[in-house]
Amino acid sequence: MLLEVHGVTKRYRRSPAPANDGVDLAVESGQVYGLLGHNGAGKTTLVNQVVGLLKPDSGSIQIAGRDVVADPGYARMVCSIQPQAQVPIDGLTPRQAIETLGRLRGAEARLVRVRADRLIEALGLSEWTGADGARLSGGVKRLVSFCMAAVVPGRLVILDEPTNDVDPVRRRLLWAQVRALADEGAAVLLVTHNVVEAERSVDRLAILDHGRVLTEGTPADLKSAVADDLRLELVLEPGTQVPAPPDFASSFTATGNRLVTTVPARMGGAAAAWAQDLRRAARIEEYSLAPATLEDAYVALVGAANTSDSTMEEPGVRAA
Q1: Range in 45-49, 184-188, 197-201, 265-269 the model is least confident about
Q2: Tell me: the pLDDT tens digits for 49-59?
Q3: How many other CB atoms sit within 10 Å of the CB of residue 52?
Q4: Where in the chain is the domain with CATH 3.40.50.300?
Q5: What is the Cα–Cα distance from 175 to 34, expressed in whole angstroms?
Q6: In sequence order, what are the beta bridge partners of 25?
Q7: pLDDT single digits (tens) 102-152
Q8: pLDDT confidence of 320, banded at 50, 70, 90?
């Protein structure tokens, strides 16, 4: 294992609960490992300990068999990181920012230019390469930040919410580059609360809740918790009140006019008939019924009260 975390606990003075509470995980070279959890679950605190910016109160962290709690300088040498906050690049062009990081990591100038060119082309950034960083959109800055971490990747690449503000087209391009980092031999620790993207992109993942690892495994392993369920998604007609879920379904989670619930597989026919009745009554625009997803497993494990804003009921959506 390249990264091994055992029993890591971290408390902040002003918080009664630990930010990390006995966290265990392991990441191999060539693997994309997802660290999934709601805002405040303890993901970024853990990352800061892995790269030596925070010292755990207890537990151990090893990278390539070396104790990075005792030697945080080694962690910073072998890790490259895209932090959650935007990297300040005002006064630099994207190309200058990317190549400067590559040179700081000790790579030869020619190799850095070749690698920067490849990333810029792969992510569709060519039109902005000469622009002042202060004038870039949030999504473009986010992509530049990824390139700064990936231009000369360390043995462990940590990406903290890499797709924030990135448009859907370039988000797909970005995930391809995340996969390429692992295929080229790096261990990638991906920190996210976007469950849908995590399912498509990771080899293994851990779900954090209030600083603890609730479960760990492949996406298929985690979905096995809801393997006998189906995912029912409704799209409401504008201005329509939320229907009460049928007796055989769980409570709805809502995003705008989209409602999601799970139903037992044996009730699939009844669920389809119920949704068809709503459609005939012009209460919904459309519906879909499919096998349960990683998001459904996440909600079942963590509970709707702890899900990110993307799955919480929004203001103005009422049950009827």
Answers
A1: 197-201
A2: 999 999 999 99
A3: 20
A4: 3-217
A5: 13
A6: 5
A7: 999 999 999 999 999 999 999 999 999 999 998 999 999 999 999 999 999
A8: very low
Q: How far apart are CA 46 and CA 272, in angstroms?
A: 43
- For residues 148, 154, 156, 160, the Cα torsion angle rounded to the nearest 10 degrees is -10
Residue 18 · residue 211 · CB < 8 Å: yes
Name the architecture of domain 3-217: 3-Layer(aba) Sandwich (3.40)
**Structure token digits, residue 161:** 């919410």
Our CA dihedral for 77, 78, 84, 88, rounded to 10 degrees, sits at: 40
Rounded to whole angstroms, the Cα distance separating 320 from 160 reads: 39
Residues 224-244 as b or e (16 or more Cβ within 10 Å = b): ebbeebbbbbbebeeebebbe
Please state which CATH class domain 223-311 belongs to.
alpha beta
Q: Note the helical H segments in the chain.
A: 43-50, 72-78, 94-104, 109-122, 138-150, 168-183, 195-201, 219-223, 268-280, 294-302
What CA–CA distance (Å, rounded) separates 298 from 277?
Answer: 29
Contact 132, 163 (CB under 8 A): no
